[in-house]
Amino acid sequence: MKASRVVQYLLVCIAVALGLVLEANADCPLTRPMIEGTNRIFANRDLSGNYVPKLIQRVQTGEVLHMICQPDDIVETTCQPDNNFNPPLPMSCMNPMPATAINVTDAFCPTTMYSIGYTINNQRLELYRACYDRTNVRALYTTHTVYGKPFYPTRPDVDFSLDNVLSPADARTFTVRSIYGAFRRIFGENQTYIPNNRAVVINRGHLTPSADYLYKDQMGATFKYVNVVPQFKTINDGNWEAIERWVRGLIRCGGSLRIKTGAVGTLILPDTSRPPVPHCAILGAETKNPVPEWMYKAVRTSTNQLVAIFLTYNNIYAPERPSAPKFCEPVPCPIFLPNTAVAGFTYCCNGTNNFESDLMYATMYALLTYLHTHTYVTLLLIYCLHVLHSQSFQFPVKIFASPSIGMARSSRPM
């Protein structure tokens, strides 16, 4: 890594450190047993009296935690001067309310933006947002804020929820058996990409990872179909996991980072014909549930200073490292990542040039090619995008423009 890049990342770390709140100095420490033994929602009240989700571990003397089970079942516990809670933790209830995904207005999402969180007495406790293409069963990106924490509680064993966004049939296209059938249908009965209907080759890769949250309910809220894409398992468990761990490691002692994670493009693979014919890897009917070609994660400080942009090639069958797409100007990465297809070929991108506008162009281009409209209209829209792009038109979209508050399953915490 060049010396200038080393200095840059050191300055970023210093910037993060300036905003630290040392969790070890918490007046009433929330221990692992307290967190893992509680199924209620940890919440506070802001200065206006509105409920807000508790996102950090520190609890100051006199601070009141509002432990929510249902809107009519909220128990208060207070941090006492003797460093204990009264009433004591952990707390559980019989029927804790689940996180929901509701449609919200967001001009920066080209499809439908969902707020994932809880509604308590007409107040929204938002955990993250997901921009989702319902027509094509395709997650475009999510935004959230990750906070430092001293330990990682055990991930809850929860089912993925549909949230009335996609059908049970669409959800089944993520299952091992369905993926095997789709690959045989698309690439031929003798295809070798997926060896059988039991092999977990592609799984539901989280965009916003569960391990970025401390509390049990918040980790569980990431298990939603609006928050996953078809991702190759070895990549999910390889370079992608290394990137997620690196992000959390930056704020191990406290502070926060703003994250945008997304997927772009559709993976194209050759079939078994001679000569081979390329086909899009689409797991559902028609254009539904495409396997993305690239996955990206943009990391910024709480003051919006760029830390890093990672771009990973979602293709374990690539015979060699692909060229970086147009929207990524490669720069050295802050961590070592294996340069293999199985782990996921990864670039780090310069965010100071046209990464944002070029990425939006690529996303819009992909969406337009999926439109179920008259061919002439579709081609005309694509042509207009080409013209605008060639004239260096800057799409009015910023990587963090959307506000944030923040059945093949991976074997690792996501």
Which shape, going by the Cα principal axes?
A: globular
Structural class: alpha+beta
CATH architecture of the largest domain, by name, is: 3-Layer(aba) Sandwich
Low-confidence stretches: 16-26, 369-411
What amount of the residues lies in strands? Answer: 25-35%
CATH class of the largest domain: Alpha Beta
Family: Belongs to the DNA/RNA non-specific endonuclease family.
GO molecular function: metal ion binding; nucleic acid binding; RNA endonuclease activity; single-stranded DNA endodeoxyribonuclease activity
InterPro entries: DNA/RNA_non-sp_Endonuclease_sf, Endo_G_ENPP1-like_dom, ENPP1-3/EXOG-like_nuc-like, His-Me_finger_sf, Non-specific_endonuclease
Keywords: Endonuclease, Hydrolase, Metal-binding, Nuclease, Signal
Structure description:
GO terms for molecular function: metal ion binding; nucleic acid binding; RNA endonuclease activity; single-stranded DNA endodeoxyribonuclease activity. This protein has two domains: 25-97, no CATH class; 126-373, Extracellular Endonuclease, Chain A, CATH 3.40.570. 21% of the residues lie in helices and 26% in strands. The chain is built from nine helices and 18 strands. It has helices spanning 3-18, 32-36, 168-172, 176-187, 216-220, 233-236, 239-250, 355-368, 375-390; strands at residues 41-45, 51-53, 64-70, 73-79, 85-86, 100-104, 112-120, 123-133, 138-147, 202-206, 228-232, 256-264, 268-270, 278-280, 294-301, 306-313, 330-331, 346-349. A hairpin with a 2-residue loop joins strand 3 (64-70) and strand 4 (73-79). Helix 8 runs antiparallel to helix 9. The model is unreliable at 16-26 and 369-411 (pLDDT under 50).
